[in-house]
Write a structure and sequence with these properties.
Layout: H1 2-23, E1 36-44, E2 49-56, E3 59-60, E4 63-64, E5 67-74, E6 82-85, E7 101-107, E8 124-133, E9 136-139, E10 143-146, E11 153-158, E12 162-163, E13 177-187, E14 195-204, E15 209-210, E16 217-219, E17 238-246, E18 252-262, E19 271-277
Parallel strand pairs: 12-19
Antiparallel strand pairs: 1-2, 2-7, 3-4, 5-6, 5-8, 8-9, 8-10, 11-13, 13-17, 14-15, 14-16, 14-18, 18-19
Length: 278
């Protein structure tokens, strides 16, 4: 009976010692997740700007947030990043103040950036977000963003600055006309196959009126030559049209506004030229 009690006593002591040992261990530290999330990028091609935003915690590791920056590497992830401050005060493109979404609308300009997005870019851009809590710096992973569809771009436009309206023909059954060529070079980073149409609209300044019932006048890149549109070479990115001015045309100053549209229905910037019919 004594031996049996001794075994129980020994077992009890062992269990107590084990519990005491484990109770003395340090509790495991709870890992705090990184304070940066929801990183976003948008390319605002029409205004030649891009928008960056990120949701950033106001505290991290018991420290208050001091500032948030974007490290902008442009189209090459190996570039040295441009360091630009992001804001949460409703300014510089930030939408709502004090919502912990730090953002900025940034001009795509070499006066601000070393890593400008070139007009020919069509793949991805790279950036990371850096938040600073006192002396602690936390940086997000390098984020790639696909540029997606790039708007077409109009280059050189060739039109005469003025034309003389032909005089009236003595034969009432014959209308005198003069012809001239209009050309516009167009590019698209997604390829010329992405261009849907190139056109201009004609506006008479003196009459405050749109010509051709406001309908666009198409330029073509079909290489049909003088027997067709007047375009000389198919698929070279130069869009052309032979324009006829008759003796019945209205004299005055015209503004011709040129645009290009791609298959995603994105438009180029509008380019305006002036022509005078005398």
């Amino acid at each position: 009976m004594v031996k049996k009690m001794n075994r129980r006593s020994i077992l009890f002591l062992v269990v107590c010692a084990s519990l005491a040992f484990y109770s003395c261990e340090e509790p495991s530290a709870k890992l705090e997740s990184k304070p940066i999330s929801d990183v976003n990028f948008n390319y605002l091609q029409s205004s030649k700007k891009f928008f960056v935003s990120a949701l950033v915690n106001s505290r991290y590791m018991d420290s208050a947030l001091d500032s948030v920056e974007v490290l902008w590497r442009g189209t090459n992830q190996q570039n040295t990043g441009d360091t630009l401050k992001l804001y949460d005060d409703g300014k510089f493109g930030d939408i709502i103040a004090n919502d912990n979404i730090f953002s900025r609308r940034i001009p795509n300009s070499n006066t601000i950036l070393a890593n400008v997005i070139p007009a020919s870019a069509k793949d991805s851009v790279f950036l990371s977000i850096r938040s600073i809590y006192k002396n602690r710096i936390v940086e997000s992973e390098l984020n790639p963003f696909i540029l997606g569809n790039i708007h077409p771009k109009i280059g050189a436009i060739v039109i005469p600055s003025s034309v003389d309206r032909p005089s009236s023909n003595a034969d009432p059954n014959i209308v005198n006309t003069i012809k001239f060529s209009v050309t516009a070079s167009v590019s698209d980073a997604n390829g010329l196959d992405d261009i849907k149409r190139v056109f201009f609209r004609s506006y008479h300044v003196g009459l405050d009126s749109v010509m051709n019932n406001g309908n666009p006048i198409l330029l073509l890149d079909d290489g049909s030559g003088s027997s067709g549109s007047g375009d000389l070479q198919k698929g070279d990115g130069t869009y052309s049209r032979t324009i006829s001015i008759s003796e019945n045309a209205l004299v005055g100053t015209y503004h011709w506004t040129f645009e290009a549209q791609d298959l995603s229905n994105a438009y180029s910037d509008t380019v305006k030229r002036q022509i005078i019919v005398k």
